Amino acid sequence: MARKADLLAQAQQMGLAVTEKNTIAQIEEALDSAKKTDRHLQTTDKQDAAATTTAKAGKRSAKAIKEAEAKAAKEARKEAAQAKSAEVDQPAKPAKRPQARPRVERHGKKYLAAAKLVDRGKFYPLTEALELAVKTSAAKFDASIEMHARLSVDPRQADQNVRATLSLPEGTGKTVRVAVYAPESAHEAAKKAGADIVGEDDLLQRLEAGQIDFNVLITVPQLMPRLSRFAKLLGPRGLMPNPKSGTISANPAAAIKAAKAGRVEYRVDKQSIVHLAIGKASFGGARLTTNAKALVDSLNSVRPSNLKDTYIKSVYVAAAMGPGIKVDTASL
Question: Rounded to two decimals, what is the model's pTM?
Fold first, then answer.
């Protein structure tokens, strides 16, 4: 009876619902069950405490725990997305991009009005095409009239890389500022010929300061080596003197007069096209035709000797910011 009394006292301390009516075996079983439950709770508390305790580095660091949680969340989202896509019989079609407007509709009102005057399927005689180019010039300024000739040459071949200079009979319509780099003995003659800037060492100082206020630079052969250090400055602007363009000359006065008279340089581009402004809209059709024919004559004079195909394949004329006009090559 003393043993049963001790067991009942332990059971009451642990809050178990047992009485004297229960047998010793029943009381012991209840005590063992309560002790197991208590040990399990203590172990769980220790694990929770360990889980909430973070280390400075390693898998138990705050950063590692956060990355693991993010990875688990990503995997869960991925699985949910795969499950959702598996439920759908057919995948959803991607949204269609809005179609861009035709290029002609993206021009301004003035361009569209001018474009209505041009029959895009017609090849115009040269004079008529140039008169139409003047008429379709919608710019507020005196626009340049450009001529674009596609040639049947391969610019990658050295003997087909068409390049030349010519003097337009009616001029270019542009005010050309000419600078001359020459010895002091040639300065007076250069000024009389119409040079805007003449100098020697002082001109080099202007170049060193990046002061470029001229359109053409002319020099004499003996001073050309001193300009080589400015190749990166002058070359990209097309201002580096070159014997092919006539800007390296032993007679600067003659080169100045040629530059002022409307001498221009052209060169075929990678697409086998020659682009050149042949005057201003204010010239009118007749003067522009004279300059255009001078360009055609110059192109024919530098035709590669080994070329058997049709040399000038197509020609377009247009005002600056104006629509292109096809030219009948038979009228050239």
Answer: 0.62
